[in-house]
Amino acid sequence: MSSETGKNIKLSIFGQSHSEAIGAVIDGIPAGESFDLSEIMSFMRRRAPGGQSYSTARREADRPRILSGLLRDEGAEGEIYLSCGAPICAVIENSDTRSKDYENLRYTPRPSHADFPAYVKYKGFNDIRGGGHFSGRLTAPLCFAGALCRSMLKKRGISVGAHIYSIGEIRDEAFDSVKLTGEEAEAPGLKAFSTISDEAGERMLSVIAEKKAQGDSVGGIVECVVTGLPAGLGDPMFDGVENIIAALLFGIPAVKGVEFGEGFSLSRMTGSRANDPYEIREGRVRTVTNRNGGILGGITTGMPLIVRAAIKPTPSIALPQDSVDLREMREEKLTIKGRHDPCIVPRAVPCIEAAVAFSLCDLMAGTGAFID
Questions:
Q1: How far apart are CA 267 and CA 126, in angstroms?
Q2: 371 part of a folded domain
Q3: Among residues 6, 30, 48, which one has the least CA distance to residue 350?
Q4: The domain spanning residue 49 has which CATH number?
Q5: Which residues 6+ apart lie within 8 Å of 115 measured at CB?
Q6: CA distance 294 to 139
Q7: Cβ neighbours of residue 346 under 8 Å, at least 6 residues apart?
Q8: 168: closest CA among 204, 209, 213, 196?
Q9: Is 96 exposed, middle or buried (CB count within 10 Å of its CB: 0-12, 13-18, 19+)?
């Protein structure tokens, strides 16, 4: 069961939802990079469970314990750490687990979870507690790695931000894909509920509360933008920016669709409408529109990079569902116990940012961008 990614900066994520701890090893971060632990913790709290009406009741501090690769800068104010060039290893303890809630799932797979294919692949030895290694809990170490990469990009004038684009049928405003600033990109992440429009956010919260009361769940879309990227990053065909970002995004449980720019909507347009005309603005080549999301031929154009990820509804719902008994090979009803998010989307926002930030850091490391 290998969970590794990266070409120039490598990331390995380990652990299970109910194991003693989960964590990450990041190799390839250059020596001398400075990281503010308070900023990292602020980013990770956006993903951490507990305390919100739309979140699971499970509570985890999600404070990473750094084992290697980062050294405390004793001469700086606050909790500032410097990379020393060695692999960075961090562990995050699991402290609020209720494994007994999953005892009835060993031979009765949950619909739309990985239980059945994992049972077949690992011959029944997979850890089913909380979803094991397939759990969204494993996005906590991803967010730690992403927070490091997001910080590295920010120092070089590149901002990564995301917001809840939609939940159910309720949609937020979209990012301005042409004139967006870094501050505007990051603004939704500073809110308790990451939407651009507060009114849309209130309506989304009402939908989540309604589905929760019904014992059901709801999905949605997260829109992520990157500003400040230079033109010319990436390669054609198999190593394009879209390829690499999409691969990381699909590593997030519940992501079932990814689009860049106008994505699937482009298929319904004519060429005259879909094309992004060029212009000279402030001495630079820019596009008047940005329907292709800042990427052409797998290479960045210098316009804001726009990507959206579709998040499916939480599969663990309180309503009875049809399943099977894998020992008896018969159909049976399943009622799922435990604590689950009625909507994963709000907590997925920083996970999307983390995946995008790591992807771009990995790409840029191959260009020597982090070598002073």
A1: 41
A2: no
A3: 48
A4: 3.60.150.10
A5: 105, 109, 128
A6: 26
A7: 52, 54, 55, 164, 193, 194
A8: 204
A9: middle
CA–CA gap between residue 275 and residue 266 (Å, rounded): 9
Give the residue among 369, 220, 241, 252 at the shortest CA–CA distance from 307: 241
Q: Tokens at residue 335, please?
A: 């009622």
Asked whether residue 49 is domain-assigned, the answer is: yes
Q: Say which residue the tokens 């992807």 belong to.
A: 359
Q: Which domain holds residue 290?
A: 4-365
pLDDT surpasses 90 at 106: no
Contacts of 210 (CB under 8 A, 6+ apart): none
Q: Is residue 372 part of a domain?
A: no
Tokens of 337: 């116990």
Whether residue 250 lies inside any domain: the answer is yes
Listed in sequence order, the residues at least 6 apart from 198 whose beta carbon sits closer than 8 Å to its beta carbon are 191
Is residue 352 classed exposed, middle or buried when 0-12, 13-18 and 19+ CB atoms within 10 A define those classes? buried
Q: Is residue 181 predicted with pLDDT exceeding 80?
A: yes
- Residues 298-319: pLDDT tens digits? 999 999 999 999 999 999 999 9
Centroid of chain to Cα 347? 9
Cα–Cα dist 33/329, whole Å: 55
Residue 160 CA to residue 95 CA, distance in Å, equals 30
Could you tell me the two tokens for 12? Answer: 């390995």
- The token pair at 149 is 């990469």
In what helix (H) or strand (E) does residue 357 lie, and over which residues does it extend?
Answer: helix 345-365
First-residue to last-residue Cα distance in the chain: 37
Q: How many domains does the chain have?
A: 1
d(CA 188, CA 346): 11
Write the pLDDT tens digit of every residue in 258-302: 999 999 999 999 999 999 999 999 899 999 999 999 999 999 999
CB atoms within 10 A of CB 104: 13
The two tokens of residue 78 are 């606050």
Q: In the structure encoding, which two tokens stand for residue 317, read together?
A: 């719902």
CA dihedral 174, 176, 180, 184 (to 10 degrees): -30
**Residue whose pair of structure tokens reads 């990507």 in the numeric block:** 307
In whole angstroms, give the CA distance from residue 362 to residue 244. 9
Taking the whole predicted model, whether its pTM rises above 0.90 is answered as yes
Q: What is the pLDDT of residues 109-118, one digit of tens each?
A: 999 999 999 9
Structure tokens at 15: 């652990």
